[in-house]
Structures are given as structure tokens and as C-alpha cells.
Amino acid sequence: MGALKLVLFDIDGTLLISRGIGREAKRRAMLECFGRTGDLDNHVFGGKTDWGIAAELLAPYGITSAEVGRAMPGYEALMARHMREIRGDYRADALPQALELVCALRDREDALVGLVTGNTGKTAAIKLEMAGFDPEWFAVGAFGHESAERAHLTRLALARAQEIAGRAFKAADVIVIGDTPADIEAARAIDAVAVAVCTGYVSREELSCSDPDFLLADLSAFFELIQI
What is the distance between the alpha carbons of residues 227 and 45, in angstroms, rounded to a whole number? Predict the structure, then answer.
């Protein structure tokens, strides 16, 4: 058995596609929590955190990121409540080989599987369940209610993983998988191996320009191309 590897997955566009439930849950929660949504319909979510998204949308109204952060516990609870209420009207589907890859990694003694996602912890769990994943499969995570900055989440996930493992991880033994340039940048923030997949809403050309270590059409080629 080789060195212990830490494999951190993004959710939307990487593990699953949820087709609108997140945007609608945000709309309802923002109206209830902040009284406004800003230009939510045209906002690009990819690679951002729920804290950061709300801060960007509310900035024109003089609401600061710090104020959004203080409201996050209540905002997260509202998003989760609304998401549970409307989940019957939406579907979420696992992306090609995502379920199989997560299960295969969980069966290995030399891998620790986790999440780095812009979703809040509560809404991440709902989306995962909708697409057939058990949130308990992921031993560690960092979530979008914890920071407005994506790179902070990879640092947080790494620190938590090291606490669980009782040891430090070498940079080469940490793999961050996502579908946006922001995921690649967040991997670089901890000197991790950056794996980009073309299953989200960012073009292969744009992902390539962000210079990931590996660029995959989907997760089916993971074990073939990445030594773990």
C-alpha cells in the first residue's frame, strides 16, 4: 500500500448536475433572510461559494461580505428548508462514473475521500442524496457557508483531513477535483494536484488555459490517467 492520498471533490458539475434547485432555494432564502436577491437569474455560480455568491449579489445594496457571513447560519438553514420543500420538483443526476469512483476510493485503505464545495454543508447533503450519494461517504469536507473564498476551503479541508489522519499530507498526495478555473486555483492554494473535468459549464479550452495537472472529459478516466 502506498502513501495515504487525500481526494477532495467539488459537487456541482463534478459529481452531479442538479438542474436549478440550488438557484431556486437561494432565491427563496435570500428573500426571506435579506429581503432581496439582486440579479440572481443572471449570476454565474460556478466556482463560487454560497457566502461569496450572496455577498456579490447584495453588494449593490450596501450589504457587506462580513454582514453576509454573520447571517450565514440562518441563511444556510433557510436554503436547506426551501431545498427540502421543493426537491420533488427537481432532479439531480450523478455524472458519468462519479458514483463508481467515489465508491472505489472509499474501498481503498490508502485513500481519504472528502468534499470542497461552494454549497453550504446542509444543501450539499441534500444534493448528494438526490443524486444517489450518501453524504457519510465523505470523511472530511469544507463548505460554502464557511468562507467567501474558495481557496480558504481547500486549506480548511486539508487541515481537517490532517487532523483525522493524524499526520500531514505531502502536496503530491492531495488531489482536488473540480470543473472550474476556481477549483484549479483553489488546488494551487495548497499545492495540491489539480484535476479538472469537462462535465460542468466551463469549456475544455477555458479549463486548459487554467493549466490543471490533469484535464479529463469525465471521471471515467481517473484511474487510467492518475496514479493513486
Answer: 31
Nearest C-alpha neighbor of 7 from the set 93, 147, 102, 97: 102
DSSP 168: P
Q: How would you class 4 by CB atoms within 10 Å of its CB: exposed for 0-12, middle for 13-18, buried for 19 or more?
A: middle
> Residue 138 has which C-alpha cell?
465523505
**Model pLDDT for residues 153-168, shown as the tens digit of each residue:** 999 999 999 999 999 9
Query: Which pLDDT score, from 0 to 100, does residue 1 have?
Result: 52
Question: What rounded mean pLDDT belongs to the chain?
Answer: 96
8 Å CB contact between 185 and 150 = yes
Cα(108)–Cα(101) distance, integer angstroms: 11
Distance in angstroms (rounded) separating the CA atoms of residues 177 and 82: 28
> Partners of 80 in the beta sheet?
none
**pTM to 2 decimal places:** 0.95
Work out the angle at residue 110's Cα, subtended by the Cα atoms of residues 109 and 113, and round it to the nearest 5 degrees: 90
Considering Cα of 194, then 205, then 102, then 91, what sign does the dihedral take?
A: positive
CB-CB contact of 117 with 124 (8 Å): yes
Closest residue by Cα to residue 19 from 83, 75, 97: 83
Within 10 angstroms of residue 201's Cβ, the number of other Cβ atoms is 12
What is the rounded CA–CA span in Å between residue 170 and residue 40? 40
Q: Angle at the Cα of 210 (from 205 to 216), degrees rounded to 5?
A: 60
